[in-house]
């Protein structure tokens, strides 16, 4: 007689309070991707970092984060999501404090890598906890709308906060700020659902798969970053990219044969989930490009301060919130996901395309603001359903790895896309200024024109990538309209293990 009860997922009565703490943790992770961008010039001057090494303050975080996420997701599945969430939270705060107190470049670089490693444990735990906390379709859509808005808009918030902290306190507070956020989020221990570790807690990790995935991703991202200085056709870059592809192909073959794979191929084989990962990975190419190039445009070309630059990104944040937390949350239970994701990618492509004719004399209101609004609204439409369907219908034991995969797509897509587009921009600027450099007639105005010319070429490629992504996702994502019948979707969301 108890059978009907066994088929119903348990409901966490404090799930909305849990969402608050999970959202704080996610905000902390996303903030650290962009907040240091604003602080970097001050940190570089304070610690004596060279121009060639300064990029590693950003790359050390994203590279460690993206390459270790799959392993972090598996650890969350084996050891328990709540436990992993708290370990990742405390470790991230400690690494942030270390980075804030760093006496030199080496310590700062190590702290940033540690932040990325603990974020790789924290992020999949947060998303999988969200997935198991909200099982009713309408509540789930609303929760993922909020979470998607944080994931998409947190980067812009980081730019604003970084500007405030750098201008009125010190660049080190861009790292210290994570400590009080983590302290508040640590109270989540009392409201998060208690879950049971997989297989009674006997952790058996796919170490060969982990090594292949990490080394393959590191090789690809490092190869792309080296292309800026050495060129895409250099032996170093082609060797690294080839090695990365070979290692990742070996990883896929390994996952097909091992008994407990790091990434079960069934997680990505589903067309809708796979398309969600693809949409997230490719969409951040447009967003990361906007953050990077518009930050330099506003500070170096227009002469904005760090704070004004951060505030200038607020309209994009508002557009993301409106799309993900408002429109997206209402439509996710009613329409197929591709009805939101594909148009969202097209809107983002159109927004980036508006930046192509940007010139040094362009005004913010006419040249930048319309693009921000379109890209922000488009990204909101992409992120909310993609985050939802990235974990939709997976088995409970795969919740952590499914969450890790979408975060991996976001970080690696952003790292590779940024390195690639930055190489395009730098090469174009170099070619534009080459004749003037030979004739020694470079002026500040010509330098600005060269920078903007490079940004424009990068925006062309970014827009094309987003438009192509919309076509691919629209064709691949085949999930039909959600059922409107009560209880029809109760088997799809993940159950909560109480104990």
UniProtKB/TrEMBL annotation:
It holds the Pfam family MFS_1. InterPro entries: EmrB-like, MFS, MFS_dom, MFS_trans_sf. Residues 18-481 form the Major facilitator superfamily (MFS) profile domain. One of its GO terms (biological process) is response to antibiotic. CDD domains: MFS_MMR_MDR_like. The chain crosses the membrane at residues 16-36, 56-73, 85-107, 113-132, 144-169, 175-193, 205-223, 235-254, 275-298, 304-327, 339-358, 458-477. Gene3D superfamilies: MFS general substrate transporter like domains (1.20.1250.20), Multidrug resistance protein D (1.20.1720.10). GO terms for molecular function: transmembrane transporter activity. It is found in: Cell membrane. It comes from the Bacteria. Signal peptide: none annotated. It is a multi-pass membrane protein. Residues 480-499 are annotated as: Disordered. GO terms for cellular component: plasma membrane. Keywords: Antibiotic resistance, Cell membrane, Membrane, Transmembrane, Transmembrane helix, Transport. PANTHER family: BLR6921 PROTEIN, MAJOR FACILITATOR SUPERFAMILY MULTIDRUG TRANSPORTER MFSC. This is Drug resistance transporter, EmrB/QacA subfamily protein.
């Amino acid at each position: 007689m108890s059978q009907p009860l066994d088929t119903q997922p348990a409901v966490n009565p404090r799930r909305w309070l849990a969402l608050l703490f999970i959202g704080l943790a996610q905000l902390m992770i996303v903030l650290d991707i962009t907040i240091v961008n604003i602080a970097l010039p001050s940190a570089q001057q304070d610690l004596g970092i060279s121009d060639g090494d300064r990029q590693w303050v950003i790359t050390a975080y994203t590279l460690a984060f993206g390459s270790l996420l799959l392993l972090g997701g598996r650890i969350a599945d084996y050891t328990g999501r709540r436990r992993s969430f708290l370990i990742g939270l405390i470790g991230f705060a400690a690494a942030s404090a270390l980075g804030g107190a760093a006496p030199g470049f080496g310590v700062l670089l190590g702290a940033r890598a540690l932040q990325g490693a603990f974020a790789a444990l924290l992020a999949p735990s947060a998303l999988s906890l969200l997935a198991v906390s909200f099982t009713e379709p309408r509540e789930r859509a609303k929760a993922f709308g909020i979470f998607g808005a944080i994931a998409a808009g947190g980067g812009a918030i980081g730019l604003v906060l970084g500007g405030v902290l750098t201008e009125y306190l010190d660049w080190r507070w861009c790292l210290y700020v994570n400590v009080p956020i983590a302290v508040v989020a640590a109270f989540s221990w009392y409201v998060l659902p208690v879950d049971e570790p997989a297989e009674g807690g006997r952790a058996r990790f796919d170490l060969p798969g982990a090594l292949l995935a990490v080394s393959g991703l590191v090789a690809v991202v490092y190869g792309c970053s080296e292309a800026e200085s050495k060129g895409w056709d250099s032996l170093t870059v082609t060797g690294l990219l080839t090695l990365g592809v070979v290692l990742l192909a070996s990883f896929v073959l390994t996952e097909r044969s091992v008994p407990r794979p790091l990434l079960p191929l069934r997680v990505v084989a589903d067309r809708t989930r796979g398309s969600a990962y693809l949409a997230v990975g490719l969409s951040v190419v447009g967003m990361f490009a906007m953050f990077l190039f518009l930050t330099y445009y506003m500070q170096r070309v227009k002469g904005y301060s760090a704070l004004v630059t951060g505030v200038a990104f607020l309209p994009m944040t508002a557009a993301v919130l409106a799309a993900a937390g408002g429109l997206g949350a209402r439509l996710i239970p009613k329409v197929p996901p591709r009805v939101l994701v594909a148009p969202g990618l097209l809107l983002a492509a159109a927004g980036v395309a508006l930046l192509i004719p940007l010139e040094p004399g362009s005004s913010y209101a006419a040249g930048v603001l319309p693009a921000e609004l379109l890209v922000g609204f488009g990204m909101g439409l992409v992120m909310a359903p993609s985050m939802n369907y990235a974990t939709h219908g997976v088995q409970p034991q795969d919740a952590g790895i499914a969450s890790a995969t979408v975060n991996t797509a976001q970080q690696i897509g952003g790292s590779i896309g940024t390195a690639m587009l930055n190489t395009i921009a730098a090469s174009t600027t170099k070619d534009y200024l080459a004749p003037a450099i030979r004739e020694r007639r470079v002026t500040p105005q010509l330098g600005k024109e060269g920078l903007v010319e490079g940004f424009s070429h990068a925006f062309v490629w970014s827009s094309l990538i987003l438009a192509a992504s919309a076509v691919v996702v629209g064709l691949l994502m085949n999930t039909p309209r959600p059922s409107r019948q009560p209880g029809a979707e109760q088997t799809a969301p993940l159950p909560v293990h109480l104990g």
